[in-house]
C-alpha cells in the first residue's frame, strides 16, 4: 500500500532525515494559518496517492497567505480538488536548493538483495530516467541481512558529485532511508527530489513510501480506510479481501486467478470492449460469489463476465454461489459464465438450473460478453435469462 | 523423462496435518510421488495417508531421509519453514504460500542461492510431471490439461496455466514438466534458472513460457536463447498487454516499476531471440505446431 506524502515524511523525519517545516491541513483556514506561520513563499501540496501532482495542478508555490487560502479552498472544496479526491493538504516551507537528486531503495529480485538507485537528475520520474538516460542511474546492491555499509553510501555520494562535506550528510540520510525501508517492511522508499541546499545540506523535497501489505501482520496491521482507494467499491472490496481494480467501462469481470483475470482484461480490450472493474473471487474468496456479484453490480455494468479455471477454488462451489447470487440479487444485466476446473460437470448443471448457458472457452465467452455490451439495452429482462443464449 | 521431480525423489511434507497438506499429500501419492515423511510441530506420532509425522524436519530426516521438501505453510511462517528445510540440507523446496512478505522472499532466495538449493515459489501451484510425480497442487485428473507429453511449461500463474496448457493439449501435445515459478515479485527460482534442466531433458522438445507484465524474468529467457545457452523452440504467452501503467494487475509481481517490465519490452526481447509469441491462449497450440510440426 502506498502511503501519503505526509506519512512518508513523518517516517523519514523519525529516522533523522531532514524534511521541510510543514503542517497538515484539513481546511483553507488551517492552510492560511500554516502559510502565515511558515512564511511565504511556501508550497501547498495536495495529499493524493496518484503521481504527477505537479502536472495536474495539485501543487503550487504560493506568494501570500491570501493566495494560500484561496488555493487551499479550490483544492478542498472546488472542482479541481474534487476531481482528484483531495482531502488533506500539506503546507511546507519553500526550500532554496542548488541541486535536485533522485534517491530510492527497492529490491533486486534476481540478485536477491536490496537495491539503492540514485541519480543526479532529480525531479524527474524514475520511469522517465530509465527510458531517457539509463546510464545516469547509479545502482548499489545492499545485502538485506548485513545492511547498508558506509562504503556503499560513499560510492553513491561521490558518483553523485557531492562534496566531501555533503557526502557525510548523505551517508547519514541514506542510513535513515535504509532504516525506513527495513523497519517499515517497505516495497519502495523514494525521495524525489532530494534537495541539495545552497548551504550544502540535504532535504527531502518529496517522499514516497510503499509498504508491503503482506507484512501488515508484523507492522501493527492498520485497517485500510477509504482515503487510500479511488472508489467506494474498491474500498468495500478491500475490506472483504477481494482483489479489485476500478475502471469505467461496461463489462464487470468476476473471475478467478490473477493471471487469468488479467488475460480476460486483455481479451476484452482486444475485442473492443471496455472493463468496468477487475475482480477476483478465486483463491480464498471462492465462496464469496454473492458478495463479488454485489460489488460488480455497484458499477451498473452492461454485462457481468465470469471466467474461472480453478483447482482448489472448486468450479461446483463457485457455480452454486453464482446461482445463489442470481436468486438473491436478481441482476438485470446479462451474465456470461465460463467456469471450468475441479467439479466442472456439476458446475454446468448448477449454472443451467440458474438459467445460464455455460461456455467452456475463454475467448468465446469474452466475445459473447463484448457483443452483449454493444447491443442496445434490453430493459427489464432479468439477468439470468439473457446470459448465455446464442 | 522429467526435470526437478520424479518418482525416485523422497518428498518431505511440512504442514502435512493441515487441510491442504493432507489433501494434496494424498493426491501427490496417487500420482506416484514418493511422499515418505511429514512434519507438523506438536503432532509427532500421528500419520497422514500412512506417512509418519514428526515435530521438526531435523527429527524427521534423522529417521527417514528425504530429497525434497513440500511446504504447506502459511506465508508468515514460510521463511522459517524454508530455512528449516535448508538447515537439514534439503536442496529442492517448493512453497505454495501466497502472500510471503517481500523482504522475507529476498532473504529466502539469497539463502537458497548461497547453499546451492532450489526454492520454487511462493504463490505457485508447484511442479508437476504429468503421469509421473508432483510437488504441489495440480488437478492432474483433468485430462485436457495434464496430459503427459514432450512440452516443458514454465509459468507465473496457476489459473492461466490451466487455460494455456489446455491449448497445448488441444493442439495434440502433452507436458513433460510444468514448473510454476509463482506470481511474486521475488520468486525463489527464476525462469532462466530452469532452462538448463529443460535443455538437458531428452523428454522435452520445446517449452512454453507463460509470463506477464512486471519484472525481467521473460527477458532473461530471451537472453539465454540469444547466447545459445537454450536452443529448443520457445513459445511465449504474456498477460497484461493492455494493463494500464503503474497499476498492479493481480499478482504482486505484475507491475511495471523503474521503467522495467512492460509486456511490449518482453515481446520485443522474445521476438529478437526467435521465440514465437502468442497474443491469445488459443494461438499457443498453433505456434507449437508451427515450431514442431502437427501432432495427431
Question: How would you sum up this structure, described in words?
Answer:
In chain A, 38% of the residues lie in helices and 22% in strands. Chain A has 390 residues and is of the alpha+beta class. Chain A has 3 domains: 73 residues, Dna Ligase, domain 1 (2-Layer Sandwich); 122 residues, D-amino Acid Aminotransferase, Chain A, domain 1, CATH 3.30.470; 155 residues, Rossmann fold, CATH 3.40.50.261. In chain A, strands 5, 6, 7, 8, 9 and 10 form a 6-stranded antiparallel β-sheet that branches. In chain A, strands 11-13-12-14-15 form a 5-stranded mixed β-sheet, sandwiched between helices. The longest helix of chain A is centred in the middle third of the chain and has 20 residues. The C terminus of chain A is likely disordered. Chain B folds into 2 domains: 124 residues, Rossmann fold, CATH 3.40.50.720; 155 residues, Rossmann fold, CATH 3.40.50. Helix content of chain B is 33%, strand content 23%. Chain B is built from 9 helices and 14 strands. Chain B is globular. In chain B, 60% of the residues are buried.
Task: Provide a quick synopsis of the model.
The complex is a heterodimer of chains A (390) and B (296). In chain A, 38% of the residues lie in helices and 22% in strands.
